[in-house]
UniProtKB/TrEMBL annotation:
Cell inner membrane is among the record's keywords: no
UniProt superkingdom: Eukaryota
Lipid metabolism found in the keyword field: yes
Organism, as annotated: Mesocricetus auratus (Golden hamster)
Similarity field: Belongs to the glycosyl hydrolase 29 family.
One family name in Pfam for this protein: Alpha_L_fucos
Name used for this protein in its record: Alpha-L-fucosidase
Gene Ontology biological process terms from the UniProt entry: fucose metabolic process; glycoside catabolic process; lipid metabolic process
A molecular function GO annotation: alpha-L-fucosidase activity
Length: 461
């Protein structure tokens, strides 16, 4: 009898230990392994999907020549495009090198708090700054930059750190753009010559930079780029991302895109960019982001831009509405001058978005795609949803003041109003036309916004 009791005690103790072990494992954070199957299973931090709108900033030594595009160095001395060669001959002395532009990147009038205030007024929830473009110049004092950085040359300031502090004071999320490659770095060219069978550049430059950026600035987002010439195995991308998700100081909130090697875009990563200005025609099954620029012809500031290449206010807002309706985020780029100024046309466009979002942000922030994303009748309508409400944003005002929505199914308790106007609108149901809504009989100047008006429908099926 005593032995039986002892056996029961042993079994009970073993069960208790198993239960404690299971509980400990349940509490332990999940560990991700350095392969895409594991990394792609990581849930996307909630903040990114709720943010919906961010501002992209392309700024670097390319802002000094400020001509053509931010790819100036490559077009000049890589592809040797005649227009760029002629520009240099006509404007700079013989023997002038790209490195000679560095001291002229002064950022003399850069006031990070003013930038952050502008981005906040634009309604942005996150800001992404270029820490290093393909030219290799780093906007922070990178210890592996060979002194080609904003602390040793030009501004003599930590631009990444200063903007980050200003942005975070306003409770905006901070993202860092980083190019994996550099066009003319000797170690990268050596690896290229070796058919990317060696990794001198990755080990000495790319990976130390990424770890330094994460540990020094604790970004909420890493916007990777410059990946296209090599596979992810060359870049050691999966090893870095496993560390980022498991052990980094931002492991719980950090978000990354999909540019981590050849064939990664639109296939692997936290969310998908796919390609610049990517815009799907139907609802994707994975979180995505459209990145685009106010200046349609360039991401960096250029002195030769004309009004014809500047996106109009209604074009930007239409893209924002369409992107969010299809489940994406909208990242809108501006390029500051070499002095650190954001020119008035860029300010104007950003503030126009902010003004529109002040009225219609309820239909954008933290919204979800509805069962129907869009319809086209007399005008184009884009739908979003939040909680029990459905939002219908229409792009053109109907001449007769009546808009019909075919997709919502009304009930006796349905109520409809326009965002920015408190009074409920009168409506009726037509078997053929759907919901017929009488819009407010107001002159254009009295409407809450100039274009893209949003109807809020409650108690619809």
């Amino acid at each position: 009898m005593w032995e039986l009791k002892g056996e029961r005690r042993a079994v009970g103790l073993a069960l208790l230990l198993l239960l404690l072990s299971a509980a400990a494992q349940a509490r332990a954070p999940r560990r991700y392994t350095p392969n895409w199957k594991s990394l792609d299973s990581r849930p996307l931090p909630k903040w990114f999907d709720e943010a919906k709108f961010g501002v992209f900033v392309h700024w670097g030594v390319f802002s000094v020549p400020a001509w053509g595009s931010e790819w100036f160095w490559w077009h000049w001395q890589g592809e040797r495009i005649p227009a760029y060669e002629n520009f240099m001959k006509e404007n700079y002395p013989p023997g002038f090198s790209y490195a000679d532009f560095g001291p002229q990147f002064t950022a003399r009038f850069f006031q990070p708090d003013q930038w952050a205030e502008l981005f906040q007024a634009a309604g942005a929830k996150y800001v992404v700054l270029t820490t290093k473009h393909h030219e290799g110049f780093t906007n922070w004092p990178s210890p592996v930059s060979w002194n080609w950085n904003s602390k040793d040359v030009g501004p003599h300031r930590d631009l990444v750190g200063e903007l980050g502090a200003a942005v975070r004071k306003r409770n905006l999320r901070y993202g860092l753009y980083h190019s994996l490659m550099e066009w003319f770095h000797p170690l990268y060219l050596l690896d290229k010559k070796n058919g990317f069978k060696t990794q001198y550049f990755v080990i000495a430059k790319t990976m130390p930079e990424l770890y330094d950026l994460v540990n020094s600035y604790k970004p909420d987002l890493i916007w990777s780029d410059g990946e296209w010439e090599c596979p992810d195995t060359y870049w050691n991308s999966t090893a870095f991302l496993a560390w980022l998700y498991n052990d980094s100081p931002v492991k719980d909130q950090v978000v990354v895109n999909d540019r981590w090697g050849q064939n990664c875009s639109c296939h692997h990563g936290g969310y998908y960019n796919c390609q610049d200005k990517y815009r799907p025609h139907s609802l994707p099954n994975h979180k995505w982001e459209m990145c685009t620029s106010v200046d349609k012809a360039s991401w960096g500031y250029r002195r030769d831009m004309t009004l014809s290449t500047i996106a109009k206010e209604n074009e930007i807002i239409e893209e924002l509405v369409q992107t969010v309706s299809l489940g994406g985020n909208y990242l809108l780029n501006i390029g500051p001058t070499k002095d650190g100024l954001i020119v008035p046309i860029f300010q104007e466009r950003l503030l126009a978005v902010g003004k529109w979002l002040q009225v219609n942000g309820e239909a954008i922030y933290a919204s979800k795609p509805w069962r129907v994303q869009s319809e086209k009748n007399m005008t184009v309508v884009w739908y979003t949803s939040k909680d029990s409400a459905v939002y219908a944003t229409f792009l053109n005002w109907p001449e007769n003041g009546i808009i019909n929505l075919k997709s919502p199914q009304t009930t006796s308790a349905t109520k409809i109003r326009m965002l920015g106007i408190e009074e409920y609108l009168s409506w009726g149901q037509d078997p053929q036309e759907g919901v017929l809504i009488s819009l407010p009989p107001l002159p254009p100047t009295a409407l809450p916004v100039e274009f893209a008006w949003t109807l809020k429908l409650t108690n619809v099926k």
